[in-house]
Amino acid sequence: MLQSLRESGRPDFAAGLDHCPVPLAPYRDPAFFEQEKAQVFARAWLLLGRIEELPEPGCYVVKALPTFGSSVILTHGKGGAIRAFHNSCSHRGSEVLPEGAGKQSRFVCPYHNWTYTPDGALIGVPDEADFAGLDKQTCGLKPVACDTWDGWVFINLQREPDVGLAEFLGPMAEHLGGLSYPSAATPLVFRATLDANWKVVADAFIETYHIPFIHPRTIGDTFASSANPFARLLDFTALGAHRAVSMYGNPDFQLGPDNKVERTAYAGVATDSVIAAAASEGLTAFLEHPAVNPTGSHSWSMDVKNVFPHVHIDCGPGGFWIHHFWPMSATTCEYEVKFYVAPATTVRERFQQEMYVGRVHEIILEDLANVARTQRGINSGGQQVMQLKDSEAGIRHHLAQLLKWVDAPSMREALS
Ligand code: FES
């Protein structure tokens, strides 16, 4: 693949995708936002998190759904089943639990203390005798379709989804299946509300063309080199509604002599990549999975697995991290990224992780500062289309899928 990068030929992965300009209206049009909400987010299986967040029966976690201004409660039931409920009381609709996680045997609505079990059953109504004809059996928390795959928890807001999770994942399940996720119980979380369409933000994390220009001081030399000065991708794979890209890494990258603190922190770390916190148990099996560095390149930095519509699972030399992009309006979104690192067992590891947190924070802020500027340019209406290069294939494919879903009468037809 590097040979084709050097010769400026079209990388093989562009085959099958057209090269036409693509419309910018989906990045600013309020009507398109409403269509995305109704036809995509209200119909697709939505990845919400990991089962490690619900380690044992009785555990729950409340997950915000920013696109809908609501939340769901995920629970680990007695029999081991992971279930989901609308976070809404059967009395007068109040949210029952605040956002957060824990383990408790009862969920008590704060408004008038109606009480539910983690399985959703209504078991307590203060002054029940004053509710004529109340049937508690039918007044439990309202369930949401929920399923898991390889430790990932998904919900579907359709009352009866017309396609199951396995069929929705399609070739992505085969691509990622069996991958172990080191340190999946210990995320570091960053969140932001952004003045940008959610796709403006997501697009910035599935291409590396911008890296030499937006991140010259932080990771410019990590993702580009004289052999690949514009950070072209190593690979792109369309996986049904989903996609994967593999990103180039400069194999000769070394921390500069001025990076004295970082050189001290990373001394002895095999990757020297500054996008990895440290080694952790289970990393060998993770790195040997065929979906991680799928081209087997010596010049590899990381992979992005885009689970349609709004989640990126990133795989790098130090493990994995995930991004959530939630549309709020045509020009605003909620963004969350979780980095998973093993609990430090030595002072050196802790030091490495602190350096890592500082570094990724800096890189993300560089990206986020850029997205608002991009959105303002899009809002101007001066441009009607985007010109995309082959290494921006992830953007092209994602937008094509969104347009297909918006037009399709059902999820099944969107996936056909
Ligand atoms: Fe929940 Fe009244 S709204 S108890």
Bound molecules: FE2/S2 (inorganic) cluster
What is the CA–CA distance across the termini? 31 Å
Q: What is the percentage of strand-forming residues?
A: 25-35%
Give a count of the beta strands, DSSP E runs of length 2 or more.
19
Write down the overall geometry. globular
- Structural class computed from helices and strand pairing: alpha+beta
* Major pleated sheet: 7 strands, antiparallel
Largest beta sheet: strand ordering: 2-11-10-5-4-3-6
User: Roughly what is the average pLDDT, rounded to an integer?
Assistant: 90
**What is the helix tally?**
12
Low-confidence stretches: 1-10
Q: How much helical structure, as a percent, in the residues? A: 25-40%
Report the radius of gyration as a whole number of Å. Answer: 23 Å
Write structural notes for this entry.
The protein is of the alpha+beta class and 416 residues long. It has twelve helices and 19 strands. The strands form four sheets. Strands 2-11-10-5-4-3-6 form a seven-stranded antiparallel β-sheet, with no helix packed on it. A seven-stranded antiparallel β-sheet has the order 12-18-17-16-15-14-13. It has a three-stranded antiparallel β-sheet with strand order 7-8-9, with no helix packed on it. FE2/S2 (inorganic) cluster (FES) binds at residues 89, 91-92, 94, 109, 111-112, 114. FE2/S2 (inorganic) cluster is lined by residues 89, 91-92, 94, 109, 111-112, 114.
